[in-house]
Amino acid sequence: MIEFKNVSKVYVNDVLALSSINIEIEKGEFVFLVGPSGAGKSTFIKLLMKEIDPTSGSIILNDTDISTITRKQIPYYRRKIGMIFQDFRLIPTLNVYENVAFAMRIVEAGHREIRKRVPLVLSMVGLSGKHDAFPNQLSGGEQQRVAIARAIVNNPTILIADEPTGNLDPDTAHDIMRIMTDVNSAGTTVLMATHARNIVNNMKKRVIAIENGTLSRDEERGRYDEI
After folding, report:
1. In what side-by-side order are the strands of the sheet with 56-61?
2. Model confidence at 226, in pLDDT bands (50, 70, 90)?
3. Using the 8-state DSSP alphabet, how is residue 128 labeled?
């Protein structure tokens, strides 16, 4: 599904962000990406999203080397990936339904398909009664649920979550992780970058740890506090 082959990334002024990373993530896995701030997690995600290119090495997704993708092909490549951000990034002038539908309109889905799919996904994340609410009328947890719905509405093969519980209280974070687990159980590969030690340790999923740009640990049923 996802393979990093000897991937390194060097920024300007010879800043080494990642060094010789070799990782394989299979379809349907749930993987935590952990490590201290500045370790290289954000670079890892940006490489996978094709926001930046590796200095050396190759990144394979579904048997395709993404370094061969042209600029025009990038939006189509990204349709395979759902992205969830810590700060939600909802459009404030659109209501809940419109925020989620917007993701479908970008991929040119038909009106009938949108009317059918959006309510279904909102129900999945527990927001059936919030269609007409605007982001500023929602709690942080509700906003993150909208962000999840938007990320999964187009049935991505991969869901990337960048600190999705970072701004949430423990109970709300637990609810968000339950939704993420349900999405994974339906067959979507989940890659979650996080500093949430308790979540990682309680869920006992695969843990990939990055320190100083290098792969320090890759364990099934791993823990955060062993970094």
Report:
1. 15-25, 2-11, 56-61, 64-65
2. low
3. T
Angle at 37 between CA 196 and CA 161, to 5 degrees: 50
Kindly tell me the burial class for residue 110, based on how many C-beta atoms sit within 10 Å of its own C-beta (0-12, 13-18, 19 or more): exposed
- CA atoms of 73 and 49, how far apart (whole Å): 12
Q: How far apart are CA 204 and CA 45, in angstroms?
A: 22
Nearest of 158, 154, 103, 148 to residue 126 by alpha carbon: 148
pLDDT at 64: 87
**Residues 68, 77 contacting (CB under 8 angstroms):** no
For residue 121, the surrounding DSSP H or E stretch is: helix 111-124
Tell me the pLDDT of the chain averaged across its residues. 94
Residues in the chain: 227
Task: List Cα–Cα distances, 98 to 27, 150, 172, in angstroms.
Answer: 30, 10, 23
Given a contact cutoff of 8 angstroms between Cβ atoms, the answer to whether 87 and 167 are in contact is: yes
Q: CA-based diameter of the chain, in Å?
A: 51
CA atoms within 13 A on the CB side of 5: 11
pLDDT tens across 22-74, in order? Answer: 999 999 999 999 999 889 999 999 999 999 999 999 999 988 899 889 999 99
Q: Is 161 helix (H, G, I), strand (E, B) or coil?
A: strand
d(CA 101, CA 111) in angstroms, rounded, equals: 9
CA-to-CA distance for 124 and 32, rounded, in angstroms?
A: 23
